[in-house]
Write a structure and sequence with these properties.
The protein is low in regular secondary structure. The chain folds into two domains: about 1-35, no CATH class; about 35-80, no CATH class. The chain has no helices and two strands. The chain has strands spanning about 50-55, 60-65. It has a two-stranded antiparallel sheet. Strand 1 (about 50-55) and strand 2 (about 60-65) form a beta hairpin. The structure holds zinc ion. Zinc ion (ZN) binds next to loops.
Length: about 80
């Protein structure tokens, strides 16, 4: 999160829908980056056919937004789009 006037940045555990204010200036903080939880999978795509591909190493399903296969851990070939 960043304070617009000072450019000061802080990292905090934010909850969706809440507004966070800078302690010193009272300004609303801008969200400049988000970290997504890792567990249970590094993908944030729902586990549906549209979002899945087949790993070229182990032939197991993996979400399309992943670079590394969650089953065998190997780097998957680039998707042809
Ligand atoms: Zn694999």
């Amino acid at each position: 999160m960043r304070t617009p006037s000072t450019g000061r940045e802080i990292i905090l555990q934010a909850e969706p829908g809440r507004t966070y204010l800078d302690r010193e200036t009272g300004e609303e903080l801008e969200v400049v980056a988000q970290l997504l939880p890792l567990a249970p999978t590094p993908s944030d795509l729902p586990w549906t056919v549209d979002n899945l591909r087949i790993c070229n190493w182990c032939n197991q399903f993996a979400q399309k937004d992943l670079n590394d296969c969650p089953t065998c851990g190997r780097r998957m070939a680039p998707l042809d789009r």
